[in-house]
Every structure is written in C-alpha cells, then in structure tokens.
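Supplementary Methods, section 5.1.

A reviewer requested that the exact input to the structure prediction be made available. We therefore reproduce it here, unchanged from the version used in the analyses.
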Amino acid sequence: QVQLVESGGGLVQAGGSLRLSCAASGSIFGINPMGWYRQAPGKQRELVATVTSDGSTNYTDSVKGRFTISRDNAKNTVYLQMNSLKPEDTAVYYCNANVKISPFRRRYLDVWGQGTLVTVSS
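The structure derived from this sequence is encoded token-by-token as follows.
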C-alpha cells in the first residue's frame, strides 16, 4: 500500500511563512509528478503547484513568486515553501502523487493525502 502524510500546516499571520511537507511511503517504484492542491471554505479544490521527478515546476498564477515547490526523490518527499502568505491562502492543502506501483509494468496509482489546514490571519 502507498500513503501520503502531510505536515507543516498551522496558523500564521499575514505576510508570514510556512513550509509544508509530504512524505510518500509504501511499495513505490517511482513518483511523477507530485503536487499540492488546496480547498478553501466554500470553494472547489484547485491546483497549487506540481513538480516532476526532473525538477520541472508549475504554479497557479495566484501563488507565483510567493510559493516554491520542491522534492527530494531519495526521501519520496515533496515540499511547499509558502512565503508572503495572504488570508486568501487559507485552505486545506492536499498532497498528491502519481505513484508507480509495479517495477515491471506501467502501473500507476493516483494517491492523495488527508490534508493539512493552513490558516492565515489578517
């Protein structure tokens, strides 16, 4: 089985910073890509950022220049460094990974974490 465990959420003042981590564990033979999504109260879940195994990144416009996604392939871990946080960043943040679960076949599993709450006060 494969699971993702997020950490690093919490309460922070506007303008502050927070670093989220997500570690994948289980029978993993590759992960590409990994990413972060978020869902604010009363809103639909949206993509925040993704990073491929070779380091290529993609961000939603609202976080460009403020958030940085990175990964440690040896640890099967993805990070989201969030700077200059705004109240509108308040949401539950979910880690996502497309995991290769077979060493011999093109078999992938889309895995989600349970989410970590980020609250930014004004």
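The chain has a mean pLDDT of 95. These observations are discussed further in the main text.
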